[in-house]
Amino acid sequence: MAEVKQSLNKTQLVGTISELNFKVETKEVTLDPNGKKVKVTCKTIGKQDFKNPNITVECNIKDDDGNVKTIVVGGNFFQTHEKKLDDKGKVVDNPRFKAIETIMGYTPKETRVKLDGSLTVNEYATEQGDWKSFMQINAFQCTSSGVPEDDYAQGEMTCIIRNIKPEIIKKGDDEEETGRLLMEVYHFDNQGKAYPANLVVAKELADDVNEIWSKGDSVKLEYDITTRTIGGGTKQVKSGGFGSKESKIVSGFTVTEYNVFRGDEPFEEENQYYISKETIQSAMKAREVMIEQLKKEKKEGTNKPTEKKGLGNKASVAKHVEEEVDEDDSDLCPF
Question: How far apart are CA 1 and CA 334, in angstroms?
Answer without folding.
Answer: 19
